[in-house]
Amino acid sequence: MTHAQAEAQTTPIDPGRTAGEEPVLIRTPALSDGKSMWTLARDTQVLDLNSSYAYLLWCRDFAGTSVVAEVGGAPAGFVTGYMRPEAPETLMIWQVAVDARFRGRRIAASMLDDLAARTGAVRLETTITDDNSASIGLFSAFAQRHDARLTTSPLFTPADYPDGHDTEFLYEIGPLQPQR
């Protein structure tokens, strides 16, 4: 996808904007966003950081199921996702990141809502460790906004990992309803 094509799929939003703040723009990522996505993921200090190469591939191969947010032209956040091959109506969210400067403006929630609408997803999945209260809150609120059932179950346990990673709980949300 070229930058011009990415620019063509933009959604301006105003979540939590106060007087004098720049508006938030949500758009499809372009290849040039790979650098800032890697930096945002690194700077959260909570996300599992993938290689910079992985973020470039994500922007190339999964741009249609991912979004980036900008504030005043500066990278403010991203959501990476993909439609599950075995469940093509299910949007699997891989990572959500928001720059610390822009937190508190509901950018993550707006990116998720925008991406669910763009993809036409009927269901949404993600994995979350039980110590990540911010993500648990984000996805619980998403389920409420979309009047959808939320179930959780262990997906990957420490025994599955070579490095002792904490259990990743699968959050299944659906079927999605229009926002209230």
Automatic annotation (TrEMBL):
It comes from the Bacteria. Pathway: Amine and polyamine biosynthesis; ectoine biosynthesis; L-ectoine from L-aspartate 4-semialdehyde: step 2/3. PROSITE patterns: GNAT. Residues 24-168 form the N-acetyltransferase domain. It is an enzyme of class 2 (transferase). The keyword 4Fe-4S does not apply. Its EC number is 2.3.1.178. Residues 1-22 are annotated as: Disordered. This is L-2,4-diaminobutyric acid acetyltransferase. The gene is ectA.
